[in-house]
Design a protein that fits this description.
The chain is an alpha/beta fold. The protein has 14 helices and twelve strands. It binds pyridoxal-5'-phosphate.
């Protein structure tokens, strides 16, 4: 984060960091520099440092500066998707023979990346319950290079104590990576709690409108940021100018959206916990959630994601998803519109049969920012 923004509050940084007025016209919003290459004033004479848009593009730079400022990091990097960001990170930090510790609850695509792609290149992993600090410590061995944490986790809403795991990582001399997609930097700041790298699917709360796919890495450290920037260019899965612009636009309302997502979710949780067809509600805001106290310590509020289990098993859960009307049946999350899905058959189908398999009677909600009474009415009718 540049010194210019370090004293500003989150909401102000969300709107202003990286968003300097266009030097040519004064446009208050950074233009979409839809361009691949830049005219040089004589060989090597670059205007403003830009030479080719895979290496750097002014609209992407605006987003990357904004991301660093929001996470309180030194360097932000924007990618074509969350998984492209993860791939770049893993292939920068790891080499054949290395080992990583991954959570027993995580986005299915992240697990697939480890199990089906990275492992083939000679990197092995141990699956640990990252909510249990001692289980993580026990999973680290002398080949471990990084610990991966997702909190709150997808789809079981597990909570990991970032500060405690950062202590384990520091002691072992390994890096701590936190996927901050579910919380967003408005609700949770992993770098301030000791993480080395934050990962985002910008597709979710950061973009916030279900209209773009993107990913990001933010580093606490300049040197690691440089190394990742080198690999970002060398590997090439960068965010395009339009995608960067639309995420930057979404981020301006992140704080107000997240407040409403959390408020609506809390009211829906209240209804679900009293509903006779619901056997369990998974939400870190519930006092009985095993991670409640840690979530209350490290998050501003508990966010817009809820999972719950229904009486009657898999078919009943699928039926609830099929009956919803205002909640759109679909994958993804974090948009202004509410979504419902069945993780076992949809987002987490790729972890079936693994240590990350999810319960068959689970339904996941991404609570949007519509009027909560309309959302409650739809869920009541979907539950039957
Ligand atoms: C927590 C989490 N991390 C990473 C990803 C991957 O991001 P993307 O779909 O943008 O590649 C997702 C996608 O659902 C996610 O939910």
């Amino acid at each position: 984060m540049s010194d210019q923004h370090s004293h500003q509050s989150f909401e102000t940084r969300a709107i202003h960091a990286g968003n300097t007025a266009d030097p040519l016209t004064g446009a208050v919003v950074p233009p979409i520099y839809q361009v691949s290459t830049y005219k040089q004033d004589g060989v090597g004479g670059l205007r403003g440092g830009y030479e080719y848009s895979r290496s750097a593009n002014p609209t992407r730079t605006a987003l990357e500066e904004n991301l660093a400022a929001l996470e309180g990091g030194r360097r932000g990097l924007a990618f074509a998707s969350g998984l492209a960001a993860e791939d770049c990170l893993l292939r920068t930090l790891l080499a054949p023979g290395d080992h990583v510790v991954i959570p027993n609850d995580a986005y299915g695509g992240t697990f697939r990346l480890f199990a089906k792609v990275v492992q083939r290149w000679g990197v092995d992993f141990s699956v640990a319950n990252t909510s249990d600090v001692e289980a993580v410590r026990a999973a680290v061995n002398d080949r471990t290079k990084l610990i991966w944490v997702e909190t709150p986790s997808n789809p079981l809403l597990g909570i990991t104590d970032i500060e405690a795991i950062a202590g384990v990582a520091r002691q072992a001399g390994v890096k701590l990576v936190v996927d901050n997609t579910f919380a967003s930097p408005y609700l949770q700041q992993p770098l301030a709690l000791g993480a080395d790298v934050v990962v985002h699917s910008l597709t979710k709360y950061m973009g916030g409108h279900s209209d773009v796919v993107g990913g990001a890495l933010v580093t606490a450290d300049e040197a690691l940021g440089e190394e990742l920037a080198y690999h970002q260019n060398a590997m090439g899965a960068v965010a395009g100018p339009f995608d960067s612009w639309i995420v930057l636009r979404g981020i301006k309302t992140l704080a107000v959206r997240m407040d409403r997502h959390s408020e609506n979710a809390e009211k829906i949780v209240e209804m679900l916990t009293q509903h006779p067809k619901v056997t369990q509600v998974l939400y870190p805001g519930l006092p009985e959630h095993p991670g409640h106290e840690i979530a209350a310590k490290q998050m501003r509020s508990f966010g817009g994601m809820i999972s719950f289990r229904v009486e009657g098993g898999e078919e009943a859960a699928v039926e609830v998803c099929n009956r919803a009307r205002l909640f759109t049946l679909g994958e993804s999350l974090g948009g202004v519109e509410s979504l419902i899905e069945h993780p076992g058959r949809m987002t987490h189908a790729s972890v079936a049969g693994s240590a990350l398999e999810v319960p068959a009677d689970l339904v996941r909600l991404s609570v949007g920012i519509e009027n909560v009474d309309d959302l409650l009415a739809d869920l009541r009718q979907a539950l039957g």
